[in-house]
From TrEMBL:
InterPro entries: Ecm3-like, Mem_transp_PIN-like. Signal peptide: none annotated. Residues 268-280 have a biased composition (Basic and acidic residues). It holds the Pfam family Mem_trans. Keywords: Membrane, Transmembrane, Transmembrane helix. GO terms for cellular component: membrane. It comes from Ephemerocybe angulata. This is Auxin efflux carrier. The keyword Transmembrane helix applies. The chain crosses the membrane at residues 6-29, 70-92, 104-128, 140-159, 308-329, 362-382, 394-421, 474-492. One of its GO terms (biological process) is transmembrane transport. It is found in: Membrane.
Length: 493
């Protein structure tokens, strides 16, 4: 249908617009014209105002009783992408060394892509022109992306995936050389590429792996080694967090959108790194005994978890999605906002539906969401610390593997999954927008949400390990997204 040159230009043009928006945020931040307090304020505007308006204005006209059945396939694809991403990161972790303070953050980096500004910006641009149908397909594409956004919010916050990031900062630190030696022992065992290691090497490797992989949980057993009071104290501090609910936010971060991630739901209390605790065994023992006498009951723990789950759903984008879908599916409610041919609704004096002014306002405000989001994305990237003269000390194997896994391997899986669902009939073959959205969202870099969560949980307030993994992905995405968009358009049409 299109020549190769035309496909490349159609695929590249939206990314040029994206790059210009990100570059604006990057350069004004480097020029000290967009300080952190301004970026934080902009992120709150995106989270609480522009994104809900954008979702509201797109979902209501796009969804109806005929296509609501597509919610299931969208949810399935979004969940599969997260599971596959976590699986890829887990495999990388088995073969390449990862900094100790990023051993669980790698799983989040693999599973959670930037489902906010980047896909909305690119997909709206592509669907706004031929071979798509313009505004109708634009509305439909954003409505489909809202399902991916909802899955992102639910799995990262209510379902607790953010706790993986917190687990990186629990327990004693481990030197990179020890981590590298431990992974070498593990790799030899997994690949069987050499003779079995000596007994001393094996014992050393096992001990190092136990430190590296340790997830600290509270324990009431009496046979705890009295020589490890430090870990016992860390256990009590970590597990006590389950009862700390409904606390006010202590750290401002960006939205739970993919790129600009907003304020953490109030139910989450971001704790200071427990590794700063003192090592004095005399002081530790009484604290441990005191904690055991205050251990919450099982019912209280489950009540706390449920409260956290439901409170974390009450973010503005989530509320906008939950409100928009019922309105879109009930014709009488939908007719209050837009014209519905099958419903006879009294009109306002201007001949429009009674609440059309709300839809107009939401469309007007929502239009600022993507440009402002791209500027904040560029600002976030500008504040990442790029390691200089330290390339030899970086986990280059894990960095390159994750970038290739998310931006080369995942799109292959995405195409195969979508084609399989089309053949099974779960995705209608005639719905070109749905196929394109599902394919494109398989090629997303790690969400910059993780930057703010890592800064919140880290005792030093930085994300030095994450930046080395993040920046190569955002460079590679311009090549991989252009190729995937061209291939998807050729495949679908």
């Amino acid at each position: 249908m299109f020549s190769v040159g035309a496909l490349i230009w159609i695929s590249l043009r939206p990314l040029l617009r994206l790059a210009i928006g990100v570059a604006c945020g990057f350069f004004i931040t480097k020029a000290d014209m967009f300080p952190p307090v301004a970026a934080r304020g902009a992120s709150h505007i995106i989270l609480n105002v522009t994104t809900p308006c954008l979702l509201f204005s797109k979902i209501i006209p796009a969804f109806n009783t005929d296509n609501i059945r597509l919610f299931g396939p969208l949810f399935l694809v979004a969940a599969l992408y997260e599971i596959l991403g976590v699986a890829i990161a887990f495999i990388i972790k088995q073969f390449f060394w990862v900094p100790h303070r990023f051993r669980y953050g790698l799983l989040v980096a693999g599973g959670f892509g930037n489902v906010g500004d980047i896909p909305i910006s690119v997909i709206m641009s592509v669907t706004g022109t031929a071979p798509f149908k313009g505004l109708e397909d634009q509305n439909l594409s954003v409505a489909y992306i809202s399902v991916f956004l909802l899955v992102f919010i639910v799995t990262l916050f209510p379902m607790g995936a953010h706790n993986w990031i917190k687990m990186d900062f629990v327990g004693p630190d481990v030197e990179p050389c020890d981590v590298q030696e431990a992974i070498r022992v593990k790799r030899r065992k997994l690949l069987c590429m050499s003779a079995a290691p000596s007994r001393d090497d094996s014992e050393k490797g096992v001990q190092q792996l136990q430190v590296q992989e340790k997830v600290v949980h509270a324990s009431g057993e009496d046979n705890v080694d009295p020589c490890t009071p430090r870990l016992r104290k860390l256990n009590t501090v970590h597990d006590d967090s389950e009862t700390e609910i409904a606390e006010e936010t202590v750290v401002d971060i960006h939205s739970p959108r993919g790129s600009i991630s907003g304020a953490t739901p109030r139910a989450f209390k971001l704790e200071k790194d427990s590794s700063d605790a003192k090592d004095d065994p005399v002081d530790d023992a009484p604290e441990t005994i005191s904690f055991r006498s205050q251990t919450p009951t099982r019912s209280r723990i489950w009540k706390a978890r449920l409260q956290v789950f439901f409170q974390s759903l009450l973010t503005a984008p989530s509320i906008a999605i939950f409100v928009s879908f019922p309105i879109a599916l009930v014709p009488q409610l939908k007719a209050l906002f837009i014209v519905v041919p099958s419903v006879n609704m009294p009109s306002a004096p201007d001949g429009q539906p009674p609440l059309s002014f709300i839809m107009d306002t939401a469309t007007f405000i929502g239009a600022a969401s993507v440009p402002l989001g791209l500027i904040c994305l560029g600002s976030a990237l500008a504040r990442l610390k790029i390691p200089q003269n330290q390339w030899k000390s970086l986990p280059l194997g894990a960095i390159s593997s994750l970038a290739i896994g998310k931006l080369v391997l995942m799109p292959v899986f995405g195409v195969l999954i979508v084609q399989g669902l089309v053949r099974c009939g779960l995705i209608p073959k005639e719905d070109k927008v749905l196929q394109f959205v599902c394919i494109f969202t398989s090629c997303l870099p790690t969400a910059t949400t993780q930057v703010y969560l890592t800064q919140a949980y880290s005792a030093e307030g930085d994300a030095q390990h994450l930046s080395a993994f993040l920046i190569p992905q955002y460079i590679l995405m311009f090549i991989s997204m252009t190729a995937l968009t061209a291939y998807a358009l050729n495949l679908i049409f």
